[in-house]
Amino acid sequence: MEDPEFDLGETEEPAYLFMRVADHVTMRITTHDLRPGSRLPGERDLASQYGVSIGTVRRATQVLRERGLVRTLPAKGSFIAPISRLRRRPVPGARPDPTSIADDARTGGETERPEGAAEPFDEP
C-alpha cells in the first residue's frame, strides 16, 4: 500500500489533527484506495505514514467507527466496512449521489408517495 499524500502543514480551515487524518482516510475509503473488507493498517503503521502520534491515530479511528466506515475487532485490528454498509450511511462532507440530485431536479425535491398514502403534515 502506498503512503498517502497528507500534508501536516497549515490548512485553510482550523481542524484537529485527528479529524484531518480521519477525513483523509475517509477520502481513501471513498476512492477505493482502501477496499471494503480490507484491514486498515495498524496504529503504528498509520502513525508513521501520517507523521502523527499513535494517540492521534486512535482518535481518528474512533471517528471512522462513528462514521460507520470501519469496524474494530479487539486483538484483530480495524477493517473497512462492507460496501453495503458504506452505501447506506452518508459520509459527512462527501459529494451527494448524482442520481439523487437528478431525482430531486425531476421531482422538484418532492418524494413520490404510494397511492393512498397520507399527505405529510406541517408542524406548527
UniProtKB/TrEMBL annotation:
Top-level taxon of the source organism: Bacteria
GO terms (BP aspect): negative regulation of DNA-templated transcription
InterPro entries listed in its UniProt record: Bact_HTH_transcr_reg, Tscrpt_reg_HTH_GntR, WH-like_DNA-bd_sf, WH_DNA-bd_sf
PROSITE patterns in alphabetical order: HTH_GNTR
Stretches assigned to the HTH gntR-type domain: 15-83
Keywords: DNA-binding, Transcription, Transcription regulation
Entry keyword DNA-binding: yes
TM helices/strands, residue ranges: none
Presence of keyword Transport: no
Region called Disordered, residue ranges: 87-124
Biased composition (Basic and acidic residues): 103-116
Record-linked Pfam families: GntR
A molecular function GO annotation: DNA binding
Name of protein: HTH gntR-type domain-containing protein
Species the sequence originates in: Phytoactinopolyspora halophila
